Amino acid sequence: MGLPACTNGPPCGKARGWSAPPPTCPIAYLRAVAKRILITGGAGFIGSAVSAYLVAQGHEVGILDNLSFGRRELAPVPDGRFMQVDIRDAAGTRAAMGDMSPHWVVHLAAVHFIPYCNQHPTEAADININGTIHVLDAAAATPGVEQVFVASTAAVYPIAEGALGESHPTGPLDIYGTTKLACERIAQAFHGTTGIPAVVGRFFNAFGPNETNPHLIPEIQRQVLAGARNLRLGNLDPKRDFIHTEDMARAMAALLEAGITGYEVFNIGRGIEYSVREVVEAFERQLGESLSIEVDPARVRKVERMHLLADVSKLKARTGWVPRRDIDEGVATLLQSDRPVFR
Fold it and tell me: What pTM was estimated for this model as a whole?
């Protein structure tokens, strides 16, 4: 797992019942608490950030990804821990899970670009719903699985004003949100049947390096890095809660480490919303240049919610997590990148 050898004497760790790092033996502590973690979709946008963070924390990470949207070079694991498997393949998913025998399963694999889901609803339902069933069935059949994390989305919420808490009634507007709400129910049933803790994270709008779909911020990034200063964009006034993938990865790790024993749902956002114009202004500040905007009719959504803001008080209270990167710091990381990786 990349940890140096312990030179502090005989083996220790779990046998001594440590619940916090002892000051004299941090290496032994890491060896005691490190987990085998299987991440589905770990070569994708959010998955690559989460995988890299958990590897850096000393965990033994394995990645399962069919590379339909992800990229092998984004998966920060050696070939022996990378499995190119489609979660629609139930037998292949179960075999991969059994081979690794993980302690924790982090299920991120999905089709999540809303325009694609709307154009391919059957495929989106097959991957997001049936794929989740296959992953959780494999987890149930694998001895030693201690907990699962299932990615959901803020798209399960209806149009509403103000910050949305986890108890807010659900009401998805599109096929993507509908499939993810189904995944939440599947995760709840999985816990009820197996007793294995199941944590659901409702992701708000993630941004950061290695985006694999042409969402708003990577599209601005792409145009700016290509030299454009007159940006062609869609709806300009809707506001979204943008959270950097580094902060999202830390939030997920904190939830995995929180000792949750049942089925629980958590919003994962920053708790601040920005309009498209405000995002463009952040790019202007980081570039030190002015940008103009031209509305492209082909990019304008016919059905649009004006606000989508997370109440993250539950996440903060349970884990102590706080976001670190604001919109300007996050945009700065994008301008240091060569380009988005979506096709």
Answer: 0.86
